[in-house]
Amino acid sequence: LAALRGLDRQRLHLQVSMDGLRDTHDRLRGRGSYDRLQENLALARAADLAFTVSVAVNGDNVAQLPDIARLAAEAGAAALHLMYHFVRGKGSGEQFVAPAELFPWIRKTAAVCSELGLPLDNLEVLRSQVFTMPSTRHDLGNMAWESVAVGPDGVVYPSPALIGMDGLACGRLADQDLARIWRRSEVLEQVRSTSLVDVAGWQRDPFVFFTGGGDPDHSFVARGSLAGHDPYLPLFNRLVLWLIAQQAARYPDQGLFRLRMGDLLLDCGNGDGHAVRLTHCNCVLSLADRDSRSLVREFYADAARETRHDIVNPFAPVDEAGFIPESSAHRSYGCGSPVRDAAPRKGETVVDLGSGSGVECFLAAAEVGSAGRVIGIDMTEAMLRLAESSRREVVRKLGYDNLEFRKGFLEDIPLADATADVVISNCVINLSPDKRRTYLEILRVLRPGGRMVIADIVTDERVDAALRNSARFRGECLGGAMVQQDLVQMLEDCGFTAILIHRRQPYRQEGGHRFFSLTYEARRP
């Protein structure tokens, strides 16, 4: 335990097996093993070691999954992970749980996990594959690409589940180093060259690029082939449909579309910049607190410390506002000037979403006067500190204080209903992982008749998935840019009226795609 405490916590994450409640776990693992497990979990928690509780699901424990989830949460687990049963070794065919029987238990377990705030890792992974950029394709797993396994005898295999399988040994560490095995193993090369499109009839599965064709481990154990025979694929397909329906139900029924692919981005934060992706048995969300928001947060935290000239707002009117400190003015990132187009009046309340260095808030503060109010919302601590440090000088020069900054997300604005007369945002909504929820939140915080004026990046056609999946281009406001026609449709879906385009200007060209700066207005009825 002392040795574990000395390791880099960002790179250390334990996975601990709990294969049932006390009697079931002891029957599978040996008498007294359950009590020892609980002692070890308590030690890990006391040492502040991150761990996931994993369950090898079988006929003996499937009905116990909801209770195991509660125990995992009580023990302080970071996540719960389900390991689907292999009919191999001690794993008998009698212990296999058919997908149709397993599905309702996963739903019940997911409900418990949601209630307790415990991620169910399998569903987090699948969500990241379903709620991703359009045209993204998942193609089998990451074994042999990003990971291998070393058996107790020093023999390397493609994955832990395949250790000891005939014909899958990749090399022995006693004979050659791991790098040489990684580069030259014929077995690993065979795994890398296998694709789901090699499977006859793959086109008949409408969810194949969501699920990635299933798990190569399970496929090989079932039929001796790396693709096309995962017995749990019907379960994954049912879960895909359920996740989509569950997510759509979270949005109000306005009589139009509730959810389209691309509205919601719940990837695992890899920002890899590829259209074709590998599936993972564990999402890095549960290992290192990384998601699409964290990529954006890191990008703009760096931009708060040092000016990013490539994303400085070319349309900012800060030259007209000598009362704004240079530290904020030089870090004014955006693609328009929503304050100028919103024309806030004296006494109005203005909310700026993604307020960054505070420039738009400072401009609005001068417009609404001492009787008005301006609230900036941002999720990045570094930007909030920068804005707050400039606020004091702005207040001194204006002669009154009508400014405040709050930490929050666009999808969960920390304001009461009907707070704002005007909501503005400058090149930020494209960064939101859930744009539909963001617009519904704006509608909620606007007063009846209130208006939002947004400057953002749009395109006229769908952008390549590789560009949209790039962390760099997301941070530069291109990866999340909406097709303008889809944007207008979403505003109507959410209930906005009086949609007006103020201006549209060429912004940038990248990867053969043209991007435009669009300033638009819409009102709450």
Q: How much helical structure, as a percent, in the residues?
A: 25-40%
The biggest beta sheet, please?
A: 8 strands, mixed
Distance between the termini: 61 Å
Compute the number of strand runs.
16
Catalogue the unreliable spans: 283-290
- CATH uppermost class of the largest domain: Alpha Beta
Structure description:
The chain has helices at residues 2-5, 22-29, 33-46, 65-75, 99-116, 121-130, 178-184, 186-193, 208-211, 216-223, 233-248, 285-288, 292-305, 326-329, 338-342, 359-368, 381-398, 435-445, 465-468, 471-475, 484-494, and strands at 14-17, 51-57, 79-84, 137-141, 149-150, 155-157, 171-172, 276-279, 349-353, 373-378, 403-407, 420-426, 446-459, 482-483, 497-510, 513-523. With 525 residues, it is of the alpha/beta class. The strands form four sheets. Strands 9, 10, 11, 12, 13, 14, 15 and 16 form an eight-stranded mixed sheet that branches. A three-stranded parallel sheet has the order 1-2-3, with helices on one face. A three-stranded antiparallel sheet has the order 5-6-7, with no helix packed on it. α13 crosses α17 (381-398). The longest helix has 18 residues, at 99-116.
